[in-house]
Amino acid sequence: MAEVILTENRDGVLIVTLNRPESMNSLNRKLLADLNKLVSEISVDRAVRVVIITGAGTKAFCSGADLKERATMTPLEVKQYIQMIRNTFTMVENLPQPVIAAVNGFAFGGGTELALASDIRIAAPNAVMGLTETSLGIIPGAGGTQRLVRLVGKGKAKEMIFTAHRAKADEALAIGLVNKVAPEGGLVDCALEMAGRIKKNAPIALEMAKYAINYGSEVDLGTGLAIESNCYAVTIPTKDRIEGLTAFREKRPPVYTGE
C-alpha cells in the first residue's frame, strides 16, 4: 500500500506531501492519523526549520474530507472525524516552525482550512480555493469560519462561506487569502525560495515571533504588547542572539543553531 504522506527533508526544510492523488488528496482517516502523528513529531524535531505542505500531482492540494469514506460513518464517527481534523489543523497552526502551504490545484473545504492553518500560503496559477461546505448542507468544521475571517475580514469571509465561492489564484491573492502566486510550474521552487529566506534567521526568534503574532492578534493591544515583551525576553539569553550581533559586527552571515 502506498504511503498517504510523503516527506523529504531538504537541508532543514521539510516538504510534506499529501499523497492520495487518485482521490484529489482528500482527507481519509488514514491520511489524517498519519498527518497528526507527523505533526507531533515535527513539533519537537530541531532539525526541521521550515515546513512546506503540498499535495501530490498538479490537480489538487487537498479537496477536503473524503466524502465516500464519510458516507459510511455513523454520526458518532463523523463527530470524532471532524474533531480529529480540527485538532490536527490546530497542531499545524501551533507548530514552532513556520509553515508554508504550497497550494497546487483544488483546495476545497478542509483543503482550504489546512492552508488557513499554515503561516504563509503560496498558490499555483491553477489553484482554486473555497470553503464550500454550505453547498453540502454543513458548515466549515475545522477552523474555517474562524481563520478565514481573521485573514480576509468578516464581510468577505461571510460572502465566500454563504455562497460556497471558489476563488481562483488571482482573486485569492487580491483578497489576501494567499501571499503569492507562483509562476507556472514553479510552485515548489517558489515555496523553497521563501523557506530559504526564512531559514536564514534564528529558529528561536522565529518561534517567538510566530507565537507573539498568533496569540497577540487575538487579544487587546495591551495584552498583545505584554505577550510580545515576554517573547522578546525569551530571545535575550540565547546563543543565537549573540551570534547575530557577532556576525553583524564581523560583516558575515550568521550561523544560527537554535540555542
Task: Explain how this protein is built.
This protein is of the alpha/beta class. It has two domains: 5-199, 2-enoyl-CoA Hydratase, Chain A, domain 1, CATH 3.90.226; 203-249, Lyase 2-enoyl-coa Hydratase, Chain  A, domain 2 (Orthogonal Bundle). The chain has eleven helices and ten strands. The strands form two sheets. The protein has a six-stranded mixed sheet, with helices on both faces. Helix 3 (75-93) packs parallel to helix 4 (110-117). The radius of gyration is 19 Å and the shape is globular. The mean pLDDT is 94.
Write the layout of secondary structure elements.
Elements: E1 5-10, E2 13-18, H1 29-42, E3 50-55, E4 60-62, H2 67-70, H3 75-93, E5 99-103, E6 106-108, H4 110-117, E7 120-123, E8 128-130, H5 144-152, H6 154-163, E9 167-168, H7 169-174, E10 180-181, H8 187-199, H9 203-216, H10 221-235, H11 239-249
Parallel strand pairs: 2-3, 3-5, 4-6, 5-7, 6-8, 7-10
Antiparallel strand pairs: 1-2, 8-9
Helix pairs in contact: 1-3, 3-4, 4-5, 5-6, 9-10
